Amino acid sequence: xITELVISVFRGEPLTAAVHQTSEVTIRYKQxxxxxxxxxxxxxxxxxxxxxxxxxxxxxxxFKQQSGMTFSQYLNVVRVExxxxxxxxxxxxxLTDIMLCCGFNTIRNFNRAxxxxxxxxxxxxxxxxxxxxxxxxxxQDTFDPTxxxxxxxxx
Length: 155
Fold this sequence. Notes:
This protein has 155 residues and is an all-alpha fold. It has one domain (21-142): Homeodomain-like (Arc Repressor Mutant, subunit A, Orthogonal Bundle), CATH 1.10.10. The protein contains eight helices and no strands. The protein is elongated, with a radius of gyration of 21 Å.
């Protein structure tokens, strides 16, 4: 009976459009993601925190909360995605050239990140392979779109 009463009260209330204001931090975060897509080879954690105009400690927590992974994990995904595109476009190109173009400093780090993210070695990747970020373990294991903390981002 109480449930029916509450339902009838809420049904009688007029609907109002929700006003969603995008905060300055959210705007900067979206700009940072775009910047990461363009400057993946040279962007550092310190540059990113400075770009967001927050302390490195706060930036670290904020980025993890927003993306479901650390800054360096996300940056590695972007870099490996670019490496996959280069390998597909130029299969004859040396891995060291691809590694350097994508912002990795050592071949060991490049191979490790590549294998961790794609499941393949750089030379063992199937022809025409496309990196699907939904299959990246760090994203899949930490992000639950049905959780009450998930936020729908539109634009």
